[in-house]
Design a protein that fits this description.
two-stranded antiparallel sheet; 2 strands; 3% strand; single chain; mainly alpha
């Protein structure tokens, strides 16, 4: 014996209008991930309108059952606006733009390796990062990670001393 539905769907729009919106979204979904997710959610709601259970509709569009219940709660509370994905863009950086600029200026004047940069950030700004994250930050700032080579136009005056096999890889601009 099947369980009765615990949560009923609120019909904010008539079925034909919902199908029209679904068709419009499916035409413009080609390259936009946000619209693709919106289309999935609208399709889920249409299936619920058609009498499918939350589990069946979720399975049909590729959701887990829990996600299906979450989408239905958003639909019931806010209608179409509740289905629009809300991408926040991730957490904010621990270093401000001024601090990053100061760090880049320091590295322009004095190239250093990742461990030293990590320690400098910790001592100077009071922010602790892993070495991998320091690498990511420096790459995003346009820094490059390489040994100085003799024919490089950016070659320092003491390149022969630095170019030993055991020399450190330094971050430079």
């Amino acid at each position: 014996m099947a369980r009765p539905e615990e949560l009923q769907i609120v019909k904010h729009l008539p079925l034909d209008e919902l199908q029209d919106r679904e068709r419009q979204l499916s035409e413009s979904v080609k390259s936009m991930k946000k619209l693709e997710r919106l289309l999935q959610r609208v399709t889920f709601v249409r299936l619920r309108y058609g009498g499918f259970s939350v589990e069946e509709a979720s399975h049909a569009v590729g959701f887990t059952t829990k996600t299906g219940y979450n989408v239905q709660k958003q639909w019931n509370a806010k209608g179409m606006e509740g289905l629009v994905p809300d991408f926040k863009g991730g957490p904010r950086s621990k270093l401000s733009e001024e601090q990053k600029s100061e760090l880049k200026d320091m590295l322009s004047a004095w190239p250093s390796d990742t461990k030293t940069v990590r320690q400098y950030i910790k001592d100077h700004f009071g922010v602790e990062y892993s070495e991998k994250q320091v690498h990511v930050i420096l790459k995003s700032m346009g820094m490059r990670h390489a040994k100085p080579y003799p024919k490089d136009y950016r070659r320092p005056a003491d390149a022969e001393a630095v170019l030993k096999k055991d020399s450190l890889m330094l971050w430079t601009t």
